[in-house]
Amino acid sequence: MARVFLVNPAMDIPAGFGAYRKLMEPMPCLGLAYVAAACRQAGHEVRVLDNFVENLSHGQVVGLARDWGAQVVGISMLTPTAQTTEALGLLLRAGFPSAKVVLGNLHAALFAKELVGRGACDAVLHGEGEIRFPRLIEALTAGGDLSAIPGITWRGPDGIMSTPMCEPIEDLDALPYPAWDLFPWRSYTFLPFVTVAQPCLSVLGSRGCPYSCKFCALGYMGHRVRRRSPAAIAAEVEWLVTKLGIRHVGFVDPIFPLDRRHALDTCRAIRARAIPGEWWWTSQTRVDAVDEELCREMRRSRCRRLLFGIESGSDGLLAGIGKNYTTDDVRRGVAAARAAGLEISAFFMLGLPGETLAAARQTVRFAMELDIDFAKFAITIPYPGSELYDRLVREGKMGSQDWGRFTTFNPDPDSLPFVPEGMTARQLLAMQRRANLRFYFRPRIILRHLFKIRSIPLRTLFQGALLALRQVFKGGG
Question: Least packed by Cβ within 10 Å: which of 50, 318, 394, 437?
């Protein structure tokens, strides 16, 4: 069996988030925690570095892996961390050549041949890794046949090679619980508009999304939905709360609830366990996936806040990005959640294809009309793997491909990867600043957060207020 060193890479927070950087905190790495658990179950010795928390230099990471005697180093690669992760991979292979470097996650899968070709890794693992990564570890360390492992890319004797993908994991209940004991989980939080209590950790109820929103890259991983059983979900929630002392369990499914019957059964399974203590759960779903009865059942099972990806206040723009619902559906979904006593966070996108300044203002007005508690106004980013990215590349309309700037709060107008026609980058960033100011600097919202919701620490509220005031007087990002 092998020594496996898993890394959640750091990113350049100041460059990617500008003035919003102080609001960014480390979040649970659920995917890596599942992989760590699967490797340990297969008999490998596992160590984890969450470098988003530790923020070590590349040289320090290489030294840590070398000193521990790692045989395989696995690194998760998403788009905003792609450049720093590739640099780390190159340094590992140069400074610690006895270890094998494997990259995984969406960005690595999309650019696998380029990454292997540039020498950033020995192999890329595509798709879900719980079953195949332990097999890949054995092959890499024991001289096994890589061509027998599905869904990998590597440099073979005849050049760069890839094996066909395998079917996704069907029995999610059979996976071991995430290996949170290997992570600095007490340092984790969710973003300020998500976190309702601490400590907090994530839970998975399902994988796969049946929808095809044009800005979303998850479709690359497939649209077939696989669900865990309500009993298994409830048992893990109880384990998190009673064994680890978690007070906020956050579902990280693309959409939960998605299936009404599964959602009702899950809520009732959680209630049946009578889990003690002051704890809550949250989830992200669609406005057209809920009704008042379902929301009330969720509230009774200790759901506190729902996250809705609303995106726009324009029916035309919603249709253009493939949301398949209308602003009337948004109003009904928000009303159902509010009637059940749930708090609501809503996500909006500015700079969608075809959006004008007038349409962006309409979205901001729509957000202010809704009875919601939080609004996140994000700059539209065409992430690799999405239909939007592919179309813009084909049309030659992609701007910067500085992956570290592919964040929804990128402060630099010169490095935005996409700006819709008829709008400038500076106008788009100014619209984002004004949207935050107009939504949050209202007496009703201020009083609600100070005296009713009270889930954001006063320190964070103070930082947010200072940020807003700087933007008022300086107009800066």
Answer: 394
